[in-house]
Design goal:
With about 100 residues, the protein is an alpha+beta fold. It contains three helices and three strands. The protein has one domain (about 1-100). A three-stranded mixed sheet has the order 1-2-3. α3 (about 75-85) links the parallel β2 (about 65-70) and β3. It starts with a helix and ends with a strand.
Length: about 100
């Protein structure tokens, strides 16, 4: 149940962010595609026990995913990147995740 609530919060947050984003030179379709990619990546993070979904931010622009935030270990940061790369619609991943100071 906890994962479902977290997933619902992630999806709602992504939908709200997509609706409020500035389109700039992107078409509405491209913006929707990027929002869908972000939602799919975050859903994978929620489902994976290695990745703390709330600590890693996901952005997408024209299929290029940028990961940022903090991971507790290099393995967590690497797993987040792998999950993002394996997501449908992702062209490339820029991993800017930093290790949290302990």
């Amino acid at each position: 149940m906890k994962n479902r609530n977290l997933l619902a919060a992630v999806i709602l947050g992504t939908a709200l962010a997509a609706g409020c984003s500035h389109l700039g030179d992107k078409s509405a379709g491209a913006t929707i595609d990027d929002a869908a990619i972000v939602t799919k990546v975050k859903a994978k993070f929620v489902a994976d026990s290695t990745v703390k979904a709330m600590d890693i931010k996901v952005n997408a622009y024209e299929g290029v995913v940028q990961l940022s935030g903090f991971a507790n270990s290099p393995a967590e940061a690497q797993r987040a990147e792998v999950l993002a790369r394996e997501t449908s619609g992702v062209k490339s991943v820029k991993n800017d995740i930093r290790l949290a100071q302990k």
